[in-house]
Amino acid sequence: MGRARILIVDDQVFARKVLHDALLPAGFLVQEAVNGDEACSQAASSLPDLILMDMIMPGIDGIEACRILKNNSLTASIPVIVLTAIKDKDKLVEAFAAGADDYLTKPFSNHELLARINSTLAKREATEMLRQDVRDKEILLEISQAITSSLDTHRILQIIVEKIAGNIDVLRCSMVRVNEDDNCGYVLASSDNACLDGLRIELGLYPEIREVLRTGKALVLEDFKNHPLMEEVREHITGLGFDSILVLPVIYRSEVIGTLMLRSARAANSFTSRELGFCELVANVSAAALKNALLYETAREESHELREVKIRLEEELREKALFETLFEHASNGLMALNGRGEPVYINRSALAMLGYTRNEALDISLVDILSAECRQYALENFVSFFAGHDYWQRGDLVFVNKNEEPFQVSVSLSDHRLAGRFLIMSFTDVTEEYHVKQQLTVANERLQDLDRLKSQFIRTATHELRIPVNIMYSYCALLGESDVGNLTETQRQYLKSAVESGERLVDLIDSMLDLARIEHEETRLSLGEKRIVEPIRDVYSVLAPYAEQNGLHLSIESFDDGLSACFDSAKIELVLTNLIGNAIKFTPPGGAIGISAGQDGEHVRVTISDTGAGIPEEYRDRIFDEFCQVKTTGGPRKGSGLGLTICKRIIAAHKGDLWVESAPRQGSAFSFTLPSSPCN
Length: 680
What we know:
CATH superfamily of the largest domain: Histidine kinase-like ATPase, C-terminal domain
CATH architecture of the largest domain: 2-Layer Sandwich
Shape: elongated
Number of domains: 5
Strand content: 15-25%
Number of helices: 19
Oligomer: single chain
């Protein structure tokens, strides 16, 4: 305890000096007041430990001042010793009635003065300790009653920290649950914030808590900001508004389950032995409440998990019921097989296909429903599934029903192994489709044979017709070039028609022979890496005079001479000849025909454009079909109708594409692509 402060109240200077000289050597701190009014004011502001009050003073005398002090809650507990030279017992009784604790009759010795002062101070301290002890017991009783009368653990812990903070002069009192395994703690209650419930703290930032966990003993840190224990976290605590810490372990059955933490602004003598003892008692009393909080939290978490599990199970059961309904009424046959190949589930469609009742189906195995021709193949796949190896998921098998009648099925296996316990198999009866497919295959083969016969007939017929037709055409042409003066006008018209018809017939026969060769690959491509400009120039040199004779301007647009592609020169010259020849045929005199080339991604693109009348919309989608001929205004059809078909197939054989862009009265542009080098 520190030095006691004594307030001397006397209107005489000499009397105050005598008392002052007697008290200072005894180690007391001394204050002085000259009258009762000043004494009441100073006592209320400085709260001295004892007051020496002269009974007779002008104004408010000592008795009245004593009465005022005892009626003030701030000063009521301060002991007052009345000093008097009057031996009137009535006055002394009046002083005691006003609240005086003792009296001294003047004159008195220093020894008697000090003895009375020490005795009064000792009585006050004992009284204060007894009063505080009663208060502590009352608070402990209130805490115990709160613990036993409520199931709200958070509320109980909040009451505990608030009671402690109200009984001890601290800035904050908090209860922390520790979880050393996770190196973290949780603030469950704090006197300055009732909303903290489960605030997570990292124990790495609280070395004082770790020390209490290590020792299991209470820890007091005065001037904790400079304490060596706090060195590792000093940068985090510099700005905090408290100077001392008291940390007490909360022990339940020899296990530290939490801490009680008090923070005070007192730097020295921060916590008295009484306060420490009181807090230890509270920590012991609150251990059960903190343990209940742990158990409640665990139960709450487990309850939450159980609720979630219950919800998941209910959802799974609903889904299971839904899927069972869907499976049972599915149009496909569905079957679940265990590792022995025995059905553990089979739906109505599967039972109908196999001809078994549900009870009969559960007594068969996979071997019983597989035909002999595919049994080995299917069983090997079944074993691979359960062994965790690669297996086929879709395929065609032959099943046998209860009457041993085979039927074709399309089987699909689930890629989900259901924890490796079951194989889910879906199958559909495709017997009818299988027979139809077989019939279509036979019919297709028959059609292919007929097509080959047709092509062979056409090839043979056109080959046989080629020589006589050429002879007739040559004679007619020769006759038309000779002297026709002896012929009538009608005969000359007949001869002209015969020459034109012969020309078209020769062209048709040649085109049909070319098409037949392409279809049957009688002429194979001779691919090589070449410059595309070479076949373009070769064809241009042949057809330019023909274009000029028809009043047309044929030109090659500028492009890179080094542009190369992979192609058969002879076949591409044939394509160019057909496309440019068509442009010449269908472009009126005075028009123009252009040839261009360029790189188009991984291909080389060649375009032949003209200024002709364009292709009518009704012909655009079938211009490359066999024997398709575009009707020209004011004239007969030109060509055999096979030239573009031949071009399309030649370009397709080169793995390229051929297309046309055209609009009425705006001309046409035929383009084809060839793979860039190198050749594959």
